[in-house]
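Thread: quick sanity check before group meeting

JM: Hey all, I'm pulling together slides for Thursday and realized we never actually wrote out the predicted structure for the chain we discussed last week. Dropping the sequence here so it's in one place. If anyone has concerns about the input, flag it before I start.
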Amino acid sequence: MASKKQTARRRAEALRRQIAHHRKRYYVDDDPEISDGEYDALERELRELEQAFPELLTPDSPSLRVGGEPAKAFTPFRHGTPLLSLDNAYGEDELGEWEQRLRRRIGDEARPSYVVEPKVDGLSISVHYRDGLLQRGVTRGDGEVGEDVTSNVRTIRSVPLRLTEEVDLEARGEAFIPLTAFREQNREREAAGEAAFANPRNAAAGGLRMLDPQLAARR
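JM (edit): ok, ran it. Output follows.
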């Protein structure tokens, strides 16, 4: 007969697989299979098992998304490859100068084509995986050295804690707050007598640099 711990371990493993599946359906496929209440029940059951058997807690546990102990400070992290920012062009003349610089670099005989798309204005983040597990989340900083904000990056539900393949990789993207969520947060802050955020970018950047992951998770 299996012991309580063995039964709990098997159930915790099954719950993590279920939660990962439903998170992908919700955040990636935009086609959820279960209600928010049913999903929350899965996470709640997993947290209860981990509280009863702390040794069952794994680096990819969804329970880590609710935030841990506040950090005293963020550790600097030097990027292996510089995390550069985009150039700005204010007007047609500056855009033309940029194209001339590009043509000088690729050769006048080249015939480049262009893609134009909206820029999501948030905070640049680099996430590192080893053997498919999230190891580190780092801000851009000055492009050479950023800050290790892993505890806060873990609270972002659309960032997978475990990949579907056991690979080593670094992914770079933008952490941002959608306008609907930004407006809702400002309404809540004003109702509580707090100052409204100036813009979504500053709200996102401030959230990822909070020392308390629980506050970052709510942001």
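AS: nice. The mean pLDDT is 86. The first strand starts at residue 75 and ends at 78.
JM: adding both to the slides.
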